[in-house]
Amino acid sequence: MSHLSILPTVLRDPELLVSSLEQLGFCPLRGGLMRGFADEPQPVDVQVGLPGGESLGWRQQADGSLALVGDLQRISRSRSLQALITRLTRCYAARLALQQAGSSFAPGTVSVHS
Known about the structure:
- By secondary structure, the protein is α+β, with helices and mostly antiparallel strands.
- It has one domain: TATA-Binding Protein (2-Layer Sandwich).
- It contains 3 helices and 7 strands, in the order E-H-E-E-E-E-E-E-H-H.
- Helix 1 (14-23) crosses helix 3.
């Protein structure tokens, strides 16, 4: 990576992030290091490899949010990566809404069928 950057996000739950990535067809890895500028290792809590050799990671911040870790210069120029982040955010938000609805209607269950 030429320039590893950390970008705050609204994502907060690593489990919902992992399940959302899996739903989108990725095989997320928990933990590990990503190479940053001058090969400086950056720890992440969740990471995925993308087609083309790019990687994205997320790191839990002190406030509980998950920060996106990646080469944001390349991401900002790639429509496919921008679309992926949009799809991931929507998938995460839908899963979070279902989780919250399920806890609001306990002991019932909330599910979506397609």
